[in-house]
Design brief:
Blueprint (H helix, E strand, L loop, with lengths): L4 H8 L1 H8 L2 H7 L5 H24 L17 H12 L3 H4 L4 H16 L4 H26 L19 H13 L5 H24 L1 H8 L1 H7 L7 H5 L3
Helix pairs in contact: 1-10, 2-10, 4-5, 4-7, 7-10, 8-9, 8-10, 11-12
Length: 238
Amino acid sequence: MSSNLAVKLREGTKKSHTMAENVGFIKCFLKGTVEKSSYRKLVADLYFVYQAMEAEMDRLKDHPIVSQIYFPELNREQSLERDLHYYYGANWRETIQPSEAAQQYVQRIHEVGQTQPELLVAHSYTRYLGDLSGGQILKGIAERGMNLSEGEGTAFYTFEAISDEKAFKNQYRAAMDGLPVDEATANQIVDEANDAFHRNMLMFQELEGNLIRAIGKMLFNTLTRRRVRGSTELATAD
Protein backbone atom coordinates (compact mmCIF):
# COMPACT_ATOMS: atom_id res chain seq x y z
CA MET A 1 0.00 0.00 0.00
CA SER A 2 1.37 3.40 -1.00
CA SER A 3 1.66 6.09 1.66
CA ASN A 4 1.86 8.83 -1.02
CA LEU A 5 4.42 10.41 1.29
CA ALA A 6 6.42 11.98 -1.56
CA VAL A 7 3.35 13.90 -2.77
CA LYS A 8 2.35 14.81 0.80
CA LEU A 9 5.84 16.21 1.42
CA ARG A 10 5.97 18.17 -1.83
CA GLU A 11 2.51 19.68 -1.30
CA GLY A 12 2.89 20.11 2.45
CA THR A 13 6.19 22.01 2.23
CA LYS A 14 5.48 24.33 -0.72
CA LYS A 15 4.98 27.37 1.50
CA SER A 16 8.15 26.63 3.49
CA HIS A 17 10.11 26.11 0.28
CA THR A 18 9.02 29.50 -1.03
CA MET A 19 9.81 31.19 2.29
CA ALA A 20 13.30 29.64 2.37
CA GLU A 21 14.07 30.88 -1.13
CA ASN A 22 12.97 34.38 -0.19
CA VAL A 23 15.53 34.71 2.60
CA GLY A 24 17.85 37.55 1.56
CA PHE A 25 21.01 35.43 1.45
CA ILE A 26 19.40 32.91 -0.94
CA LYS A 27 17.80 35.60 -3.13
CA CYS A 28 21.22 37.22 -3.55
CA PHE A 29 22.77 33.82 -4.30
CA LEU A 30 20.18 32.96 -6.94
CA LYS A 31 20.82 36.34 -8.58
CA GLY A 32 24.54 35.60 -8.78
CA THR A 33 25.80 37.60 -5.80
CA VAL A 34 27.93 35.08 -3.91
CA GLU A 35 30.41 36.41 -1.35
CA LYS A 36 33.17 34.00 -0.38
CA SER A 37 33.37 34.76 3.35
CA SER A 38 29.66 34.16 4.01
CA TYR A 39 29.52 31.25 1.55
CA ARG A 40 32.34 29.35 3.26
CA LYS A 41 30.53 29.80 6.59
CA LEU A 42 27.48 28.17 4.98
CA VAL A 43 29.66 25.26 3.81
CA ALA A 44 30.92 24.84 7.38
CA ASP A 45 27.38 24.88 8.81
CA LEU A 46 26.21 22.36 6.22
CA TYR A 47 29.15 20.11 7.12
CA PHE A 48 27.97 19.85 10.73
CA VAL A 49 24.36 19.24 9.62
CA TYR A 50 25.25 16.47 7.15
CA GLN A 51 27.74 14.90 9.56
CA ALA A 52 24.94 14.57 12.14
CA MET A 53 22.33 13.36 9.65
CA GLU A 54 24.60 10.80 8.02
CA ALA A 55 25.82 9.49 11.39
CA GLU A 56 22.20 8.92 12.48
CA MET A 57 21.17 7.42 9.13
CA ASP A 58 24.13 5.04 9.21
CA ARG A 59 23.42 4.04 12.82
CA LEU A 60 19.78 3.35 11.92
CA LYS A 61 20.34 1.73 8.51
CA ASP A 62 18.55 -1.45 9.67
CA HIS A 63 15.55 0.43 11.09
CA PRO A 64 12.30 -0.69 9.34
CA ILE A 65 11.60 2.81 8.01
CA VAL A 66 15.00 4.53 7.82
CA SER A 67 16.47 1.55 5.96
CA GLN A 68 14.07 2.14 3.06
CA ILE A 69 15.52 5.61 2.33
CA TYR A 70 19.11 4.83 3.28
CA PHE A 71 21.16 5.62 0.16
CA PRO A 72 24.86 6.11 1.05
CA GLU A 73 25.47 7.43 -2.48
CA LEU A 74 23.72 10.62 -1.32
CA ASN A 75 26.23 11.27 1.48
CA ARG A 76 27.71 14.75 1.44
CA GLU A 77 30.10 14.72 4.41
CA GLN A 78 33.22 13.82 2.42
CA SER A 79 32.45 16.23 -0.43
CA LEU A 80 31.95 19.03 2.11
CA GLU A 81 35.31 18.11 3.66
CA ARG A 82 36.95 18.69 0.27
CA ASP A 83 35.25 22.06 -0.04
CA LEU A 84 36.26 23.07 3.49
CA HIS A 85 39.88 22.19 2.70
CA TYR A 86 39.62 24.47 -0.34
CA TYR A 87 38.08 27.43 1.56
CA TYR A 88 39.88 27.15 4.91
CA GLY A 89 43.09 25.25 4.13
CA ALA A 90 44.61 22.11 5.65
CA ASN A 91 43.73 23.11 9.23
CA TRP A 92 40.04 23.56 8.49
CA ARG A 93 38.96 21.21 11.30
CA GLU A 94 40.55 23.52 13.89
CA THR A 95 39.16 26.63 12.18
CA ILE A 96 35.44 26.01 11.72
CA GLN A 97 32.63 25.87 14.24
CA PRO A 98 28.86 25.66 13.77
CA SER A 99 26.75 28.79 14.04
CA GLU A 100 24.04 28.92 16.70
CA ALA A 101 21.34 27.94 14.20
CA ALA A 102 23.47 25.05 12.91
CA GLN A 103 24.02 23.82 16.47
CA GLN A 104 20.27 23.79 17.10
CA TYR A 105 19.70 22.00 13.79
CA VAL A 106 22.30 19.34 14.66
CA GLN A 107 20.76 18.84 18.11
CA ARG A 108 17.33 18.31 16.54
CA ILE A 109 18.68 15.71 14.11
CA HIS A 110 20.27 13.73 16.96
CA GLU A 111 17.13 14.09 19.08
CA VAL A 112 14.98 12.71 16.26
CA GLY A 113 17.44 9.86 15.66
CA GLN A 114 17.27 8.88 19.33
CA THR A 115 13.53 9.30 19.93
CA GLN A 116 11.59 9.17 16.61
CA PRO A 117 13.84 7.72 13.89
CA GLU A 118 11.05 7.76 11.30
CA LEU A 119 11.23 11.58 11.32
CA LEU A 120 14.73 11.38 9.81
CA VAL A 121 12.84 10.84 6.54
CA ALA A 122 11.86 14.52 6.73
CA HIS A 123 15.44 15.71 7.19
CA SER A 124 16.74 13.46 4.44
CA TYR A 125 14.03 14.68 2.04
CA THR A 126 14.50 18.36 2.84
CA ARG A 127 18.23 18.38 2.21
CA TYR A 128 19.01 15.65 -0.33
CA LEU A 129 16.13 16.16 -2.76
CA GLY A 130 16.88 19.87 -2.85
CA ASP A 131 20.58 19.14 -3.42
CA LEU A 132 19.79 16.83 -6.31
CA SER A 133 17.20 19.14 -7.84
CA GLY A 134 19.02 22.45 -7.71
CA GLY A 135 22.61 21.27 -7.42
CA GLN A 136 23.84 21.92 -10.94
CA ILE A 137 22.15 25.32 -11.12
CA LEU A 138 23.64 26.37 -7.76
CA LYS A 139 27.07 24.98 -8.68
CA GLY A 140 27.15 27.18 -11.78
CA ILE A 141 26.04 30.24 -9.81
CA ALA A 142 28.72 29.63 -7.17
CA GLU A 143 31.45 29.18 -9.79
CA ARG A 144 30.51 32.38 -11.61
CA GLY A 145 29.83 34.41 -8.46
CA MET A 146 33.17 33.56 -6.82
CA ASN A 147 35.17 33.15 -10.04
CA LEU A 148 36.00 29.52 -9.28
CA SER A 149 37.59 27.04 -11.64
CA GLU A 150 35.57 23.90 -12.47
CA GLY A 151 35.44 21.64 -9.41
CA GLU A 152 37.08 24.14 -7.03
CA GLY A 153 35.07 24.54 -3.84
CA THR A 154 31.90 23.01 -5.30
CA ALA A 155 32.28 19.29 -4.57
CA PHE A 156 29.11 19.54 -2.47
CA TYR A 157 27.00 19.84 -5.62
CA THR A 158 28.50 16.83 -7.42
CA PHE A 159 26.99 13.39 -6.77
CA GLU A 160 29.73 11.18 -8.20
CA ALA A 161 27.94 7.93 -7.29
CA ILE A 162 24.69 8.90 -9.08
CA SER A 163 24.81 8.76 -12.87
CA ASP A 164 21.17 9.67 -13.63
CA GLU A 165 19.85 12.19 -11.09
CA LYS A 166 16.31 12.28 -12.46
CA ALA A 167 16.02 8.47 -12.35
CA PHE A 168 17.45 8.46 -8.83
CA LYS A 169 14.93 11.07 -7.64
CA ASN A 170 12.13 8.88 -9.01
CA GLN A 171 13.60 5.90 -7.16
CA TYR A 172 13.86 7.96 -3.97
CA ARG A 173 10.26 9.17 -4.21
CA ALA A 174 9.06 5.60 -4.89
CA ALA A 175 10.91 4.47 -1.75
CA MET A 176 9.17 7.19 0.28
CA ASP A 177 5.79 6.21 -1.13
CA GLY A 178 6.44 2.61 -0.10
CA LEU A 179 7.23 3.41 3.53
CA PRO A 180 5.12 1.52 6.06
CA VAL A 181 3.72 4.63 7.77
CA ASP A 182 0.16 5.48 8.77
CA GLU A 183 -1.56 8.81 8.16
CA ALA A 184 -0.62 10.25 11.55
CA THR A 185 3.07 9.40 11.08
CA ALA A 186 3.03 10.80 7.53
CA ASN A 187 1.63 14.07 8.90
CA GLN A 188 4.36 14.14 11.56
CA ILE A 189 7.00 13.69 8.85
CA VAL A 190 5.54 16.62 6.87
CA ASP A 191 5.56 18.76 10.04
CA GLU A 192 9.19 17.82 10.68
CA ALA A 193 10.11 18.70 7.08
CA ASN A 194 8.57 22.15 7.55
CA ASP A 195 10.59 22.52 10.75
CA ALA A 196 13.74 21.49 8.84
CA PHE A 197 13.05 24.17 6.23
CA HIS A 198 12.71 26.69 9.06
CA ARG A 199 16.05 25.60 10.53
CA ASN A 200 17.70 26.05 7.14
CA MET A 201 16.20 29.54 6.93
CA LEU A 202 17.68 30.47 10.30
CA MET A 203 21.13 29.35 9.09
CA PHE A 204 20.77 31.46 5.94
CA GLN A 205 19.60 34.49 7.92
CA GLU A 206 22.65 34.33 10.18
CA LEU A 207 24.86 34.78 7.10
CA GLU A 208 23.19 37.99 5.95
CA GLY A 209 25.29 40.24 8.20
CA ASN A 210 28.52 39.11 6.53
CA LEU A 211 26.98 39.45 3.09
CA ILE A 212 25.67 42.98 3.75
CA ARG A 213 29.08 44.09 5.07
CA ALA A 214 30.69 42.76 1.88
CA ILE A 215 28.28 44.09 -0.77
CA GLY A 216 26.68 47.04 1.02
CA LYS A 217 23.19 47.59 2.39
CA MET A 218 21.93 49.37 -0.71
CA LEU A 219 22.82 46.56 -3.13
CA PHE A 220 21.46 43.95 -0.69
CA ASN A 221 18.12 45.81 -0.52
CA THR A 222 17.99 46.10 -4.31
CA LEU A 223 18.65 42.38 -4.80
CA THR A 224 16.11 41.26 -2.18
CA ARG A 225 13.24 43.69 -2.79
CA ARG A 226 10.86 41.47 -4.75
CA ARG A 227 9.40 38.20 -3.52
CA VAL A 228 10.02 35.33 -5.93
CA ARG A 229 9.12 31.72 -6.46
CA GLY A 230 12.57 30.21 -6.63
CA SER A 231 14.03 28.07 -9.38
CA THR A 232 14.99 25.15 -7.14
CA GLU A 233 11.40 24.90 -5.90
CA LEU A 234 10.28 24.33 -9.47
CA ALA A 235 13.11 21.87 -10.02
CA THR A 236 12.01 19.55 -7.20
CA ALA A 237 8.89 18.70 -9.19
CA ASP A 238 11.03 17.17 -11.99
